[in-house]
Amino acid sequence: MLRALCVVAVFILTLVIPSHTSAAQGRVVEFNERPCVRCTATLTDVGVVRMPEDQPGFVRSTRLVQLANGKVVASPLDEKGKVAIFSSKLAFERLIGTAGNGPGEMGDVSSLYGLGPDSVVVACCGGTRLTVFQSNGHVIASRSVRVAVDDALWFRGGRVIANGPVSTASGAGHPLHVMENWVVTRSFGGTTNATLPADRATQRRLLARYPGDESRFLALPPNRYDIELWSTQGVLLETWKRRPAWFQQWTSVNRMPPWMERPATQLQALWWLDSKTLVVMASLPDANWKPEAFAPKVGALFPSLEVTERLIDRKLDVLDVSTRRSIATLLVPANASGVLAPDRLYAVEEDEVGQFAFRIWRIAVPR
Predict the structure, then answer these.
(1) DSSP state of 14
(2) Could you read off the pLDDT of 76-85 as tens digits, one per residue?
(3) How confident is the model at residue 134 (pLDDT cuts 50, 70, 90)?
(4) Which of 88, 96, 249, 274 is most buried, by CB atoms within 10 Å?
(5) 315 — phi, psi (to 5°)?
(6) Is the separation of the CB atoms in 86 and 71 below 8 Å?
(7) Chain centroid, CA 112 distance in Å
(8) What is the per-residue pLDDT across 259-306, written as a single tens digit (0 to 9) for each?
(9) Neighbours of 235 (CB within 10 A)
(10) Residues 222, 277: Cα–Cα separation, whole Å
(11) Are 105 and 81 in contact (CB under 8 A)?
């Protein structure tokens, strides 16, 4: 009788958290959906980040990061080599940075990362130069690296986990790289992505630290809803699989202009609300999407913000890591551009004269 009860208990646990182990993939865990949980996030308008009229303006692709001291950093701007610093109350303070391709200078800024209480890492020159600034403009370090950085995580002791193409023979085709003191020491992750090895878009990874653990991190490709749990030594520990009906997996990038084909569902951001709750942001065409409606105006490369907001949805998939379940799927403004803090999103806006600004929303997720 006791043995029979143990068998039943194991069977029930298997239903709750389906998983299996593979030598190549590590432990695979299926994330299920909790039935009948569909709701809308509560959004509170915090304010608008706007450049003064006498300063360089934002561009549509401007990124924002919030430092530990509350200051907000924004770049790129419509003047190369510049980064804008705002106070914790979103008031403009100063510009920092000098245009150029040498040490301590910046070319086209591709990404920003907060580092410590008052420092920001700027990736420019296609992600191959990383410069560490304090918010007062002082340059702490500036190095050329062999990874064209698309995303990166910074750990104690100078260790960096970076995603992007690498200019080393041993690292070719691998999307993830360990850098020690700015030097690539290990590349990994290429064998887990069954897509085109030379395609930079399908080799992208969204990265997130694991809460309270310097030895693990998460990586998520934009084209497959498989959240990978890695050790910082390059060992794949688990793969968390999600297969919601709204997400369509894809294996290559459209070669046609974006208004000619239905846009692929894209996973765009990955972050923790708290130590047990993970959020994934995705964009996908809504039911109103049509090629002729999505076409840009004559002379423009991309559809207008108004068209994008009307025809593209932004979803937040809220995952409870402790129970291995999706607990909510939330709709947020379609112009949401990124994550400023665990409870804050920013969304791009354009006025009647073509000037961009970013509205900050505080998000409350039903639990």
Answers:
(1) H
(2) 999 888 999 9
(3) very high
(4) 96
(5) -115, 145
(6) yes
(7) 11
(8) 456 677 889 999 999 999 999 999 888 777 666 555 556 556 566 666
(9) 11
(10) 20
(11) yes
